[in-house]
Specification:
The protein is an alpha/beta fold and about 160 residues long. It has 6 helices and 6 strands, in the order ααβαβαβαβαββ.
């Protein structure tokens, strides 16, 4: 029943949204994808992590199992963000991933150990993709991880280990 509700919410928001390009999929990420994204990153000593494009929380539920002291979620859709705030009250929820560095500064977080992303990068203009990647690079600590799952068949899941 809950699965049907989530699917209905995603499909209806996808079809009627004026921000159609910012919605990555009409269905939530699969459990398999979410687990593979989380498990592919070494999780020892995670202090601060972020998820960009948290959506329905399909990946967030596994991030909650990571022993990180600070978790930042970014979701543009206000309805989905409100659900995330209710489901994960210990996490900070924010609207715009383009403000990642600003949010870190305001939160007293110098750098992130890992960033997981469910953002539909190829739906964005090149200038937005470039700005997002700049925010990500400025926010990761040396040796930090960026894990991205693009669901369009043209790009395989991307995992980058950043060495400054």
């Amino acid at each position: 029943m809950l699965t049907q509700l989530v699917l209905t919410l995603c499909a209806s928001r996808f079809l009627v949204s004026s921000h159609l390009l910012f919605t990555g999929s009409i269905i939530p990420s699969s459990k398999h994808l979410a687990l593979s994204m989380i498990r592919s990153i070494p999780q020892q000593e995670m202090v601060a992590v972020a998820e960009l494009g948290s959506g329905t929380g399909a990946i967030t539920r596994y991030i909650a199992q990571v022993d990180a002291k600070q978790v930042l979620l970014f979701e543009q859709n206000s309805r989905m963000r409100q659900r995330l705030e209710q489901a994960y009250p210990a996490f900070q929820c924010h609207h715009n991933a383009l403000q990642l560095r600003e949010v870190l500064d305001q939160s007293g977080i110098s750098q992130l150990d890992c960033i997981w992303s469910g953002l539909p990068f190829f739906n964005f203009a090149q200038s937005v993709r470039t700005a997002l990647l700049e925010q990500i690079l400025l926010s990761l600590k040396p040796g930090g991880w960026f894990k991205e799952a693009e669901g369009y068949g043209l790009a395989l899941p991307l995992k980058i280990h950043i060495n400054h």
